[in-house]
Amino acid sequence: MGIAEVVGVVLFVAVVVLAYVTWRRIRLLRAGGVHVALRSRLDVSGRGWHLGVGHYRGDSFVWSRVLSLRAGPDRVIHRDGFEIDDRREPTASETYAMPAGAVVLRCRGVDGEVVEIAMGPDALTGFLSWLESAPPGRSIPWAS
């Protein structure tokens, strides 16, 4: 097998992977998804953000990375016990991986894991409404 065939195979595989990632993102957005950036390893440098698509499934918010070959969601956030600890504007070093006009929410799950979620104003309104719309008998998930 010559160099031309190897380069051809590599380019073909790259095009197929790119086409799959593009098709997956479009499919997730058409299913009612919103652009959301998420990070679970918090540091002061502003690194670790991953752009993805999130959507609601009853009491769960499922998030899938844009650049992932995984068929299912990468993260599932359950509304029960989920609390918002802080709300802030992104720093200049963080805006590279966030939707336009994003607001950053620092959140804590029932297991104590801290994640930060960044989303635009429209997505934020929907997310906050989803959190507040817990069935009767549950507490509203606000820590502050």
TrEMBL record:
Keywords on record: Membrane, Transmembrane, Transmembrane helix
Origin species: Saccharothrix tamanrassetensis
Ranges annotated as spanning the membrane: 6-23
Matching Pfam families: DUF2550
Name this protein carries in UniProt: DUF2550 family protein
